[in-house]
Amino acid sequence: xxxxxxxxxxxxxxxxxxxKGQARTDSKGALRQTAQQFEALFxxxxxxxxxxxVMKSDLIESNTADQFESMFDKEVSVQLSKRNSMGxxxxxxxxxxxxxxxxxxxxxxVLKARDTSDQPSMALNPVQLGLPLQAAKKIMNDLPRPxxxxxLTAPKxxxxxxxx
Length: 164
Description:
This protein is mainly α and about 160 residues long. The protein is about 55% helix and about 0% strand.
């Protein structure tokens, strides 16, 4: 008998709760079971798509038959994933274990490792000074005015383009 509790289906909520609890203590075993459940879900959706692609006769079509086919597909997919027939779960486990090995430590661990108590703190939002007065006047003068109105302080221009 297996030492690991095996969830009967990916829809078994009690089994998923046990799997979540197991993930805290035995992450590799939980990863394997989760990958198997994902493979079962993938197989079940594939079988459902294959069944939908086949034309059905109106004589034998019913909601009850569809429900039993769905239940059958679900059970077959769970059993196939337990037998490791496709290898999708193996690839997921291998990929996720490699990712976990290369993952940097959690932020909380990094912050604990740093000792910043003797360093002065830095403001997150430094105070920004406004624009210099000359730059603000230039921007205001360049803005279009409604009805062709001009500012009273606008520099006068001669017809030739020079200053008067």
